[in-house]
Structure formats: structure tokens, C-alpha cells
């Protein structure tokens, strides 16, 4: 498993290491976390502390794998720490990307928009293996073959509205 | 009122029904929607680099700058990302749910009512959280259903997570979370998020899953059945 670069997590999320020192250890985040509905007993605060003290986080940590980005933790936290974004940064830093996510981003890079048929075709091996075929009858209403009608690219390297995530992260 | 409109990728793909519904309902309510030219994907929940996510979403705001100050954004993920990207709050970014209120609901020419029907208004995550980017009236779906005589159920489950964004990564996660929500609610599931729609529809057994726009169009007499 790749090791995480702690500094990259701070860069990606716009947080500084010291920002996590405000965490009260109240574990409200843990008490509301959706992943606990899966009976996995996770504690988002423990992840933040690992980042704070520079400990290793494994890519197979249940939160890294199963966080649903529901923002229950972030909205319950007294400091509104954006934990799901920390988790997404962890995934990005660890290079954990399923075929589906890769296809999604590739689509945006090429066309600037997501074209679902393209994503489905690219992610087909996972869909076939993953037992999704049985849902196809239910998914008929979602089907529709549309081709990209205009080619456009997103210049994601520059911030178009002069956004500064580092400052945003501290506000 | 005139608004800019940002459909986002899913409303031009798997959630075309929501797109048609929003356009039709807005027209009925006297709102005109003009699509932002050349819009691009908002980044959804796929980017681990916040800077990158905000710049992708911000690009849409740059494109909207010349045409409007108010943008209607149906998909909850797009809605949140665009709000986050609008750091100086130069736009009023609205969910179509925020265009509904007691006054315009009472003015709807009602062709059918919802008497003796039970509905489970399900909002999911991003319309409700985090507070800074959530919709203001967190009972608007209940208000709408009640305004036309329908019964509401499942209050406690309305903002739980269906796990929609894990559907193509760890299907069992979505199955478990959606089933939990469905098990503690009754009636037709009414959603507004394309991903909630897919997650709920995939795992709902013997329950209908519709968009709020389907319900409104039924009441208005535009849709024959629910
Ligand atoms: S966003 Fe992730 S970490 Fe936070 S409560 Fe939801 S599942 Fe748990
Ligand atoms: S809710 Fe916030 S302050 Fe409390 S333990 Fe979790 S991260 Fe720390």
C-alpha cells in the first residue's frame, strides 16, 4: 500500500496541520458517521489525529474505502471540519481510484462533461464482475445513447474566479 | 422571474426526466430558464483536490457572469459545488426546490389531488448539509405534498445517506444504506437527487420512486399517472 504524503493532504484540502488542533475529541463525528450504519465502527476524528501527528493511514481503512461523502460529520462537528474532503484527498494522494472514478475524470478531461455511456463502457469490466447486470431492467429508464454534442475542455489548472482554497479552508 | 440554468451532466443523461420536469414546472410557475452557454461538469464528488474541484465549478460561474445573477441548479452535487465555488457570493444559486413556496403552490391550477396516498419525501445529503450550502426550507417537499392532500411518512429518515455515490464502487454499501432507509419509511419515495433516485430505485422492492417534479406534473394534470 502506498504511503500518504501528509503535506499533500493539507495542500489538497486547504487545511494547515494546525487547523486540526482545534478538534475537541468530542467524537460527535463518529457518533453520526454513516459508515457506522454498516457496522464498521469507525471514528473520523482518529483519521484527523493521524494526519495531525503524521501517522501512516492505510488505503484499506474502512473510512477511506466507504465514506459516502454524506457530510453528516462535517455538519455536526463544532468546527465544521470538512472530513469527507479530507477523506477524498486521502484517496487522491494514495492513488485509490476505481475504474468508474477514472472513467469519470477522463471524460471531464476530454469533453468537459460526463457522458454516461462512455463511463459505462470504460467501467464495464467492473460492472460485469460486480453483479450489476441484474439491475439492468430497473435501469432502463436511465439509458439513452447520447454522444458528446460539443467538444470542450476545462482549464482546471487555473482558478477562474481567483479562488484561494487555502484561505477558504481557514474561514 | 428569469434565471440562468445549470443542468449538469446527469440531467442531460440518466436524469433527463428530472430535467424535463424542472423545465416544465418552472414554465408553469412563470419562471424562464436560460441555460448557461458551454457549461462544464461541476466535478461532482470525484476530486480529492479541492482547488481543482472549485476551479472546475468556478469555470461555470465565469461563463454565467455576463448573463445572470441567479442560477437554478437541480442536481444537489452541482448545487453544492457551485455554491462552494462562489466564494464571494456574487450569485444567488438556487435549487428548484427554493422556487417553491406556499404562495405559488396555492396558485397552481390543480387538476388532481393526492388524497389517500402516502409519500416518503427523501432529501438525502447535499440538499440538507452542510449548513452553508443547504436549502433554506428543509420541509418544502412535505409542504408540497401536504398542500395537495397527500400524507407524509419517514420524517426521521429524510436526510440519512442512501450511499448513492458508492453504488458503482461498493454496491453492498449502497444496498445496506438504502434498504435501511426504505425499511423505516412507507409509501412512494419522492426524491430530488439523481443519485438518490438511482440508489432508491435499485433497491426498492414494491415501492415507486419518483421525482418531486413528477408529483407536481401529476397534480397539474400534465402527467397521467404517478
Ligand atoms: S462524510 Fe464520510 S466520514 Fe463523514 S459522516 Fe459521512 S460517511 Fe462518515
Ligand atoms: S466532531 Fe469535530 S471536533 Fe469533535 S471529534 Fe469530530 S472532528 Fe473533532
Largest interface by Cβ-Cβ < 8 Å: A-B, 67 and 56 residues
Summarize the helix and strand pattern of chain B as letters. EHHEHEHEHEHEHEHEH
List the secondary-structure elements of chain A in sequence, H or E.
Answer: HHHHHHHHHH
The quaternary structure here is: heterodimer
Could you describe the largest sheet of chain B, including whether it forms a barrel? 4 strands, parallel
Query: How many separate helices of chain B?
Result: 9
User: How helix-rich are the residues of chain B, as a percent range?
Assistant: 25-40%
Largest sheet of chain A: none
First-residue to last-residue Cα separation of chain A = 34 Å
Kindly estimate the percentage of residues of chain B that lie in beta strands according to DSSP: 5-15%
Low-confidence stretches of chain B: none
Note the gap between the termini of chain B: 28 Å
Mean pLDDT across all residues of chain B, rounded? 97
**Shape label of chain B:** globular
Task: Compute the CA-based radius of gyration of chain A.
Answer: 19 Å
Summary keywords:
heterodimer, A: 171 residues, mainly alpha, 10 helices, 0% strand, disordered C terminus, B: 226 residues, alpha/beta, four-stranded parallel sheet, 9 helices, 8 strands, 38% helix, globular, binds iron/sulfur cluster
Explain this structure to me?
The complex is a heterodimer of chains A (171) and B (226). With 171 residues, chain A is mostly helical. Chain A has helices at 6-13, 28-32, 44-53, 62-66, 72-76, 83-94, 99-111, 116-122, 124-129, 165-170. The relative contact order of chain A is 0.14. The model of chain A is unreliable at 157-171 (pLDDT under 50). With 226 residues, chain B is an alpha/beta fold. Chain B is 38% helix and 12% strand. Chain B is built from nine helices and eight strands. In chain B, the strands form two sheets. Chain B has a four-stranded parallel sheet, with helices on both faces. In chain B, strands 6-5-7-8 form a four-stranded parallel sheet, with helices on both faces. In chain B, helix 8 (194-203) links the parallel strand 7 and strand 8. In chain B, helix 3 (50-64) crosses helix 4. The longest helix of chain B has 15 residues, at 50-64. Chain B is globular and about 45 Å long. The interface between A and B is large, with 67 and 56 residues. The structure holds iron/sulfur cluster (2 copies). One iron/sulfur cluster is lined by residues 23-29, 45, 48, 77-79, 81 of chain A. One iron/sulfur cluster binds at residues 23-29, 45, 48, 77-79, 81 of chain A.
Amino acid at each position: 500500500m502506498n504511503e500518504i504524503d501528509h503535506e499533500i493532504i493539507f495542500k489538497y484540502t486547504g487545511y494547515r496541520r494546525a487547523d486540526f488542533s482545534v478538534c475537541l475529541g468530542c467524537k460527535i463525528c463518529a457518533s453520526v458517521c454513516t459508515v457506522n450504519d454498516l457496522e464498521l465502527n469507525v471514528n473520523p476524528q482518529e483519521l484527523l489525529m493521524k494526519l495531525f501527528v503524521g501517522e501512516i493511514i492505510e488505503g484499506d481503512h474502512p473510512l477511506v474505502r466507504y465514506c459516502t461523502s454524506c457530510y453528516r460529520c462535517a455538519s455536526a462537528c463544532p468546527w465544521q471540519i470538512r472530513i469527507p474532503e479530507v477523506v477524498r484527498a486521502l484517496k487522491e494522494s494514495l492513488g485509490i481510484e476505481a475504474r468508474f472514478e477514472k472513467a469519470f475524470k477522463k471524460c471531464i478531461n476530454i469533453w468537459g462533461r460526463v457522458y454516461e455511456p462512455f463511463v459505462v463502457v470504460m467501467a464495464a469490466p467492473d460492472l460485469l464482475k460486480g453483479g450489476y447486470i441484474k439491475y439492468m431492467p430497473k435501469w432502463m429508464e436511465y439509458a439513452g445513447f447520447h454522444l458528446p454534442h460539443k467538444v470542450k475542455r476545462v482549464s482546471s489548472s487555473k482558478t477562474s474566479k481567483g479562488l484561494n482554497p487555502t484561505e477558504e479552508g481557514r474561514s | 422571474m428569469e434565471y440562468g440554468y445549470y443542468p449538469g451532466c446527469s440531467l442531460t443523461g440518466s436524469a433527463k426526466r428530472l430535467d424535463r420536469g424542472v423545465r416544465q414546472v418552472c414554465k408553469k410557475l412563470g419562471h424562464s430558464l436560460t441555460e448557461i452557454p458551454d457549461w462544464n461538469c461541476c466535478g461532482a464528488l470525484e476530486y480529492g483536490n479541492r482547488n481543482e474541484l472549485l476551479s472546475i465549478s468556478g469555470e461555470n460561474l465565469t461563463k454565467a457572469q455576463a448573463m445572470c445573477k441567479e442560477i437554478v441548479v437541480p442536481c444537489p452535487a452541482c448545487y453544492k459545488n457551485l455554491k462552494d465555488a462562489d466564494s464571494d457570493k456574487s450569485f444567488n444559486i438556487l435549487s428548484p426546490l427554493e422556487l417553491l413556496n406556499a404562495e405559488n403552490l396555492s396558485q397552481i391550477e390543480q387538476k388532481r389531488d393526492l388524497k389517500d396516498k402516502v409519500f416518503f419525501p427523501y432529501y438525502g445529503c447535499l440538499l440538507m448539509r452542510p449548513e452553508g450550502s443547504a436549502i433554506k426550507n428543509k420541509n418544502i417537499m412535505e409542504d408540497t405534498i401536504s398542500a395537495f392532500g397527500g400524507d407524509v411518512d419517514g420524517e426521521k429518515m429524510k436526510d440519512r445517506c442512501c450511499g448513492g455515490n458508492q453504488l458503482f464502487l461498493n454496491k453492498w454499501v449502497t444496498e445496506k444504506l438504502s434498504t435501511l432507509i426504505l425499511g423505516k419509511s412507507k409509501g412512494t419515495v419522492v426524491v430530488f437527487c439523481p443519485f438518490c433516485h438511482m440508489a432508491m430505485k435499485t433497491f426498492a422492492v414494491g415501492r415507486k420512486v419518483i421525482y418531486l417534479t413528477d408529483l407536481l406534473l401529476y397534480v397539474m394534470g400534465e402527467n397521467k399517472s404517478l
